Amino acid sequence: MELKRSEIMPGVWLSTLKTDKFKTACLSLSLLSQLRRETAASYALIPSVLRRGCARYPDLDALAARMDELYGTAVEPVVRRIGEIQAVGFYASIPEGAFLPGGEDVLRPACELLGQLLLSPNTRGGLLRPQYVDSEKEKQLERIRSRINSKGSYAVQRCIEEMCCFEDFAVGSLGSEEDTESINYKKLTKQYHTLLQTSPVEIFYCGRADEKELTAILRDALMTLPRGEIDYEIGTDVRLNAIEAQPRCFEEKMAVTQGRLVMGWRLGEAMEEPDLPALMVFNAVFGGNTTSKLFLNVREKKGLCYSVYSMTELHKGLLLAAAGIDFERCEETRDEILHQLDCMAKGEISEEELDAARKGVASELRMTMDSQGELEGFYLAQALDGTDCGPLELAALAETVTKEQLAAIARAAECDMIYFLRGKDEEDEEDEEDEEEIELSDEELDALLAGEEEEHAE
Amino acid sequence: MQSKAYPHLGETLYSATLPNGLQLRVLPKPGFRTRYAALDVHYGSAYRRFTLGGRSYDTPAGVAHFLEHKAFDLPDGDNALQLLSANGADPNAFTSTGDTCYFFQCAENFEENLRLLIHFVTTPCFTAETVEKERPIIGQEIQMYLDSPDSTVYENLLTQLYAHHPIRERVLGTPESLAEITADTLYDCFNAFYTPANMCLCVAGDVDPEEIEALAREAFPSERAEIPETDFGPAEELLPVEPLCRVQMPVAAPQYLIGAKLPLPASGAEAQRARITALLALRTLFGPSSAFYTRLYSEGIITRNYSYDVDFSAGTATFLLGGESRDPERVLAEFKRELAAAAESGLKSAQLERCRRAAFGARLRGLEDFESVCLSVADGVFDGYDALEAPVLLAQITKAECEAFLRGIRPEMLALSRVDPYTNT
């Protein structure tokens, strides 16, 4: 299974992994752009609007019936933020002909469908249909608002937003509610054309077809892709230091049973020439798995929590640690987490800890080779970074990481934000009752939204 | 080991029942580096009351899950979770209403890790001290789920549907039931259920089935023990206890689940066929290509956060459909209308056939994931069917069977559970 990579059309790069290991093939197409407040919400909305209907299959019924016919081929919108690059497009999962009755080949029709969704939308007078735009806009708003439903991931997102409030990274892959609300179908049509003309395009395929065959199919399917001046000047602005001398603190209140502490660091000098395997092993020792310092000390030794972990964002250069705790144990947990990082900085890392972390990271990287979803994400990130080190090479490098490298990473990390989501006390409950009087009921909200939609239609 | 080939799927499954009663299944996956093992104990949170050797036990809610946490402790003070992790494996465990499952995946040292998995699951070590230490950790886990709208909407639905079956209680128990659990409770339940005859070991990866069998014969305790008789209480009526439940939480829009108790099929083979039939019927009438879904999606009533399932567990069968909606009552009303129309005029053949194709593709996709394959194989072992036969059965299910399933969900059987935003007062 060797990665082949070529430019199949101007600014359109195809990465293929030919393998007969899997029973379904995966094909993703991503349009890349700089993540910016002004465009994030609109660009995020584009694949969802396109997924509502194309010229050949004009509505959801026709599209869904077509995908059923292709043995449940799924072509779904995907929106991602990789560092400060926004990647929007489609991810397709396509059953391999070898396992279908009569050996029916669905790769070509699936690629054609992908091309039609991307390039031949269902339009009226050359404009994206307002009813599709407004309907998907509403769903995007619902998705942005529903971030609060899962308290753990909400707290992590809020910590990043507060920590990176002066950077585009804080925008999030879907953009803001306000920016989503201001989208209209005419402007969105223009932005759609801009995106098609100027975006570098990354296509990833993993399956049984060979590169030549697939290139021919994709060139046909994407024949009408307009290519203007491609904007290759996209990238992530890495801030090495904390904003202030002391970590900033932010506390938020919500009617929750459990508190959520999230701490954020800048990886500092470690991002000047990032050593990916060392950073991965560092995270594994700190809080990445069940042999980590955070798991063994914050959970097992001190019994402060059930959930505690750390993670890194290696495009932006962030380290985050999160724990679900009792409200009154915030300071204690914070101090213990800081203490564990301090231990690492002093080189207090046992041979067992180092060995377990190296093995864990190497094993995880090797297992990447067995998951199409993981491979897709891995190689998209590699393409954006301009590196060509595969998971197996990284795994071998992870096995050679030293304690000194980890201590240096820990020393370079600067704590920039301490975020805490806590419950409401009785005083807050009273405040909330006051607030409720001015808040809108569901019915009022619906009426208001309907009114807005009518305005757009006019 | 006995082997059975599934040529249309490109898979071969090896099976054996060891003298100690252990059910062993191995699915060789040449060309993959990942090797996966799941040791499934047929004991979950609903198995609270049981009889063994003439003695009756009535245990607090949450014991199966507490036992799962403490099973990793080894007599020499080591913890198997850390040992597996240190050896490059990615270990974990879960407890459901019907099962407790311990599993790991790794790229290297598979046999060593497998021995450790078998060793820790079959070696109890519970002390008053370690049980006390674990209590606050599980207490935090309970708190975490109390903040989860998904868990809340699901747990409420089960209490609405079931009058007394222990499936209506939380898998983790409550802070009060947690306080009642002692090391003795854990030993009682371990001794009763953690015996090879009540377990299934399922392995997937590039392995030699005979070697896995030899390892299992050596690593598991050799005696075959009696399996307890579980008491889930008297049979339940098909009608729900409480058709509607609404609670408020910090969520952006209402979360909902529509559910119904279903009659329990007489045998494992029937249960498998019933489940495949149910899923095909539901896909045809309520799946992503149904008129129901596309209409309500286009109208903004339902979102992509939408799914349905039929769940068989601990002697129950439950239908569920839900997600997020600004108007769950409307979803319920439309759902009932659609069912009534299908009862009246039947399903459309063309739609059914398209859905059969899509369902086949989805089953093929499911085979990529070692964990989901192993867990469904283990479910089949305990319930008496062959999970890998599903694609063949799918081709045989008739339109009449699908229609009969849909007619079986009568409007008065349905319950609606919702979690609303606080502003909804």
Structural description of this entry:
Chain A is α+β, with helices and mostly antiparallel strands. Chain A has 3 domains: about 5-220, 2-Layer Sandwich (Cytochrome Bc1 Complex, Chain A, domain 1), CATH 3.30.830.10; about 250-420, Metalloenzyme, LuxS/M16 peptidase-like (Cytochrome Bc1 Complex, Chain A, domain 1); about 430-455, no CATH class. Chain A is built from 17 helices and 13 strands. Chain A has a 6-stranded mixed sheet with strand order 1-2-8-3-5-4, with helices on both faces. The longest helix of chain A has 18 residues, at about 350-370. The radius of gyration of chain A is 24 Å and the shape is globular. Residues about 430-458 of chain A have low confidence and may be disordered. In chain B, about 45% of the residues lie in helices and about 25% in strands. In chain B, helix 3 (about 110-120) packs parallel to helix 8, helix 9 (about 270-285) crosses helix 12 and helix 9 (about 270-285) packs across helix 15 (about 400-410). With about 425 residues, chain B is α+β, with helices and mostly antiparallel strands. Chain B has helices spanning about 65-70, 80-85, 110-120, 130-145, 150-160, 175-180, 185-195, 210-220, 270-285, 290-300, 330-345, 350-365, 370-385, 390-395, 400-410; strands at about 1-5, 10-15, 25-30, 35-40, 50, 55-60, 90-95, 100-105, 200-205, 230, 245-250, 255-260, 300-315, 315-325, 415-420. Chain B has 2 domains: about 1-230, Cytochrome Bc1 Complex, Chain A, domain 1 (2-Layer Sandwich), CATH 3.30.830; about 245-425, Metalloenzyme, LuxS/M16 peptidase-like (Cytochrome Bc1 Complex, Chain A, domain 1), CATH 3.30.830.10. The mean pLDDT of chain B is about 95. The relative contact order of chain B is 0.17. Chain B has 15 helices and 15 strands. The chains are: A alpha+beta (about 450), B alpha+beta (about 425). Chains A and B meet through helix 2, helix 4, helix 10 and helix 12 of A and helix 2, helix 4, helix 10, strand 13 and helix 12 of B.
